[in-house]
Amino acid sequence: MNKILECVPNFSEGRNRENIAKIIAPFKDKAGIRLLDTQRDEDHNRLVVTVIGTPEALKTAMIEAMGEAIAVIDLRRHQGQHPRMGAVDVVPFIPVKDITMAEAVDISKAVAAEASRQYNLPVFLYEASASRPERRNLAAIRKGQFEGMAEKMKAPEWMPDYGPPEIHPSAGVTAVGARMPLVAFNVNLDTDRLDIADGIARRARHINGGLRYCKAMGVRLQDRGIVQVSINMTDYTQTALYQAFELIRIEARRYGVNVVGSEIVGLVPMAALVDTAAYYLGLEDFSAEQVLETRLEI
Amino acid sequence: MNKILECVPNFSEGRNRENIAKIIAPFKDKAGIRLLDTQRDEDHNRLVVTVIGTPEALKTAMIEAMGEAIAVIDLRRHQGQHPRMGAVDVVPFIPVKDITMAEAVDISKAVAAEASRQYNLPVFLYEASASRPERRNLAAIRKGQFEGMAEKMKAPEWMPDYGPPEIHPSAGVTAVGARMPLVAFNVNLDTDRLDIADGIARRARHINGGLRYCKAMGVRLQDRGIVQVSINMTDYTQTALYQAFELIRIEARRYGVNVVGSEIVGLVPMAALVDTAAYYLGLEDFSAEQVLETRLEI
Question: Residue B176 and residue B197: Cα distance in Å, rounded?
């Protein structure tokens, strides 16, 4: 048994390469840790790191990286398109292999407790780790962003789960939690009209009557002169990728618009793609046991 | 680096469970070896084993299993629907991970040499290991089957590559070679007319002008009252699964027939399914590095 957990921390630094190098250093060349991906975005001024590891190794490295980020990022001077409330904005832990969601929740709480203590940082638990239902959704916690957080936290219902009851002056607040693997799946349209992408997103997403585990919004791809429906598949085991894709294709017809392609940002569990292939080929009685994996070990 | 080779030996025994247990015993509970699948078929009177391992461990286990099969199978008393020429009919080695086709060829030759010596068995090299072009195709070697092989081998062009120039009295001859992973992919049709499945197979397969790495024939599924196009994808990296599937769907239209499903028999490399999912979703810039595998290790 080899328990593997994934962590996808989002840091509010997408521009200064020196700072970024310091933040990701704790994930490099460590036993029990594999840094899979880093994506920095200058417009968003945000860094998204994808790392997997054994629970203990990942916990230690994550707390260290939070310290680095808090040391180099000052949110009072931070501007970017992506909403944010902390130098370390959000730290999701995702069960990957031989580990339950309950164990992932425990680790997220251990990281929240230790980081809040070491860095005097207010931490909110979210998603599966949330202490109350209204904190499950990250957007609810982050509403008001860094600039509004000091005021927001004066209300008793916004006391943090760990750390002091006021924002860290330069690092704001952080959300930590455990959640299902999330697949970032974007579908591109052959139009430049954002209202069409938004209209399709509204029909596809759960909140407006669409697919249960699908969040979506319209996004403009400036350089290509087109728009896309940007989707977060929040539980691919319940709502399949191909369902979202086909539903968007169907909704696009209303507007006489075509789907021209799609993209997966970051990682996707193999099962989500196998499920997709099995659907389109109409595979009968197919089992994941039949798949010879690329990174197979004896 | 962890070189992994696959072997899918076919033995001419699909009925006697005691004999089958003896044949597969050398693949069980061995370091460096993982027995993935065994399929025995009573009608074919044939056993297909799928095993992966490190080259050395697999070579040793394979030679041992050949000895067991030669000891318990007597082809003079063997009947079955599947064409066969030996107790150990065919032994293909398939590069799986961190290993080249040239290395797989070397291992196939080492197994052929050692088994022919130990068991006084004539061995023909085939596919990528073949010593001459007309021996690449297994069907050409096997033509005449066990019953015709003694006569066939009198011709100088059918001297075996290893071992004596005449058949083993009870075990016949064996073909050993290295080849690309082969995907057994069958597409089911909503008709019971075998001539339609055959007609579609002819249009899809390489030999009649179809896809380069596609062998196909019509097969009747007695119990379901339908027919299928049974396909061997001989190099899925060059001819994709979805190409074969869509071509069959297109050809089926000629007959007013529909595809009702498909099946993959045995193993399929992950890349073949990822490629399929990427095609149907129109994924742009997708890399296999983005896939979180199920049997992942740190």
Answer: 31
